[in-house]
Amino acid sequence: MVAHSRVARTVRSAGRLNEPRPARVEANFDGTPWQVNHQPVVVVREEWRVLDRWWTEEPVSRRYFEVVLETGENTVVFHDGAGGGWFTQRGA
Amino acid sequence: MIACLSIPGFELKAALRRSPSLALRPAALAPEPVGEPLIGPVTGAAEALGVRPGMRLGEALATCPALALVDRDPAAAELAWEEIVRALEDAGFAVEAAALGIAYFETRGVERLYGGIEPALRRALGAVGPAWDARIGAAGRRFAALAAASVAKPAQLLVVRDEEVGTFLAPLPLTLLPLERQRYEELEALGVRKLGQLAGLPGGAVAERLGPDGRRAWSLARGGAAARVRGRRPPAELAETLEFPEAVGNELTLRRALGALVETVVARPERRDRFVRKVALGARLVGGGSWRRSLTLREPCADADRIRVALAPRLAELPSPVLELRVELVELTAPAGRQLELLAAGAEDRSRLSEGLRQVRASTGPGSVCTVVEVAPWSRIPESRALFVPRDD
Question: In this complex, how many residue pairs, one in chain A and one in chain B, have their CB atoms less than 8 Å apart?
Fold first, then answer.
């Protein structure tokens, strides 16, 4: 029988940077957000779409908005067209 | 309840304040300087002769050769609208200005103050004044309030109780819905001309045929979703104006004037260390009209040079020489409203940072300090570009 080597093995797991975080967003008729996490949106600065991985089982279809909130904070939110729901995301 | 104040043809009414005699003659707001030549709102006399808002200019002139075209005056319209919104705010209403001539407010907070919903709405109409032909609709939902205001007569209050919403909306035309022209035509081709007809269709079938826009329109036709009114923050009142002794069209002179105005307005003590989020550049033109462009800065700042650089390209859009140039700080953030970097450029102190990280690691254990490793920086999906990997060395 071989004894356990007693060598400590550290398992280090990497995480994704800028993972989307669920957000509470209220949107207008045209889909543009007017409130993000209970903060009113003052202006929608930019809007763009990301369609990717359409050839896989998990396609990405997102409608992004860069908005300025009433507090003066710039933030990016997107609506997930594939799974539904709104998310905030840094680094977009 | 949610109240909607509506002033149809507001931009025309604001422009006609300079020449009130035209209000009784066939007149229309001139088309935008760029884009399709479509006329804006029209006076009652023009409408009686068959001219409709949104007509092509040629068609309108062929219908009514005596039609007078009123120059657009966006600065006057914005100032007049601001006066109206402030008058409502002074009367105690928290106003959400949806567009020029359309404002929403909640009545719940002021009903006790004025002794009921109708006295409160009458107070609101009184605050606006009789000159604008304002009308107010009130209902439990925003869309129903807007619809009520759209069918009300000048100076009329129209309150729609929750139990009456369905019967009130049913005979109204589809044009009240925020839909593209093509969608109206599609619905009309299907024999759907009234809100009640659309509301009576199965929601799933409407969504399948017309997509998400159709689904939203269907929801509105049934009264719409509950949505709060967001009372605005009153805008800042910081502005500087420079009058020229004679009309100036030279861009270099205008740029210099802009630079001086921006420096003066940013240095005003009333700014009190707040950062500028939105600025506006306005001008009084040589022909008597006005011009105005507003701009939201990508990042709030108080640097006069950056504001000047952001505004300067707009000077090229001036349609004619100017008699007066004006810079307004429209919105200011709180002093803490700016997002700063952790380490400012040129002030990095790597050894202190390393020591700080060592202490964090010692107190919170392995895996608490990570380093960022780029794995697919070209990816269009932000979370696929980089990983953070624990770093215990």
Answer: 83
B1-18+73-234 fold: DNA polymerase; domain 1 (1.10.150)
Which ipTM score applies to this complex? 0.80
A73 vs chain B: nearest CA distance in angstroms?
A: 6
Q: Please name the residue ranges forming H helices in chain B.
A: 10-16, 44-48, 57-63, 74-90, 108-114, 117-128, 142-151, 165-169, 181-189, 195-199, 203-221, 251-266, 304-311, 350-364
A-chain residues near B98 (CB < 8 A): none
Q: Which CATH class is domain B238-332?
A: alpha beta
Helix (H, G, I), strand (E, B) or coil at B118: helix
Q: List, for residues B23-71, the tens digit of each pLDDT value.
A: 888 999 988 877 788 888 888 888 888 888 888 888 989 988 888 888 8
Residue B240 dihedral angles phi and psi, to the nearest 5°: -130, 140
pLDDT in tens, B129-173: 888 889 999 998 888 899 999 889 988 899 988 888 888 888 888
Cβ–Cβ of A15/B212 closer than 8 Å?
A: no
Put simply, whether the predicted model's pTM sits higher than 0.80 gets the answer no
Contacts of B335 in chain A (CB under 8 A): none
* Helix (H) or strand (E) segment spanning residue B155: none
Q: Is A84 on the interface with B (CB under 8 A)?
A: no
Q: Tokens representing B131? A: 């000159």
User: Where along chain A do its domains lie?
Assistant: 21-88
- Domain coordinates of chain B in residue numbers? 1-18+73-234, 19-72, 238-332, 358-390
Which CATH number does the domain B19-72 belong to among 3.40.225.10, 3.40.1170.60, 3.30.70.60, 3.40.50.720?
Answer: 3.40.1170.60
